[in-house]
Amino acid sequence: MFGGIPPEGDEETPVFVISVAAQLAGMHAQTLRTYDRQGLVSPGRTSGGGRRYSMRDIALLREVQRLSQEDGVNLAGIKRIIELENQVDALRARLSELTEELAAAYAAGEQAAAAAHASYRRDLVPLNQQTAMVVWRPKRR
């Protein structure tokens, strides 16, 4: 269970109590509480109010620690980075939705055009090339 995602959930499923999450993230439990209060990492809650961390939360905790320790970013800066990354993720998801809508609209347009062209064929009278008439007009001098 400590090495990965529990079999009954996914990376979003909040399953780890704060002591286990702190151990997995390589931090003290009090640090996790501080990050929660500051809005950096918001774990799920039980009905009794206890924190439950997901694997995604643990990865975010590790990223907060990396930004702080390796890159020297303060907590306000880290919070802004997380907000911007979440915004980028939301925009990517919206772009994907719009791309799918556009593809569906394009396909519907193509289908409507094909139906319109098919209806023209029913209205046209075929021309028999063997009985076609050619008009000759001599040039005036």
Automatic annotation (TrEMBL):
Q: Which residues form a coiled coil?
A: 81-108
Source organism, top-level taxon: Bacteria
Q: Do the record's keywords include DNA-binding?
A: yes
Please provide the record's keywords in A-Z order.
Answer: Coiled coil, DNA-binding
- Where is each HTH merR-type domain found? 15-84
Q: What is this protein called?
A: Helix-turn-helix transcriptional regulator
This chain's source organism reads: Amycolatopsis heterodermiae
List the lineage, top down: Bacteria, Bacillati, Actinomycetota, Actinomycetes, Pseudonocardiales
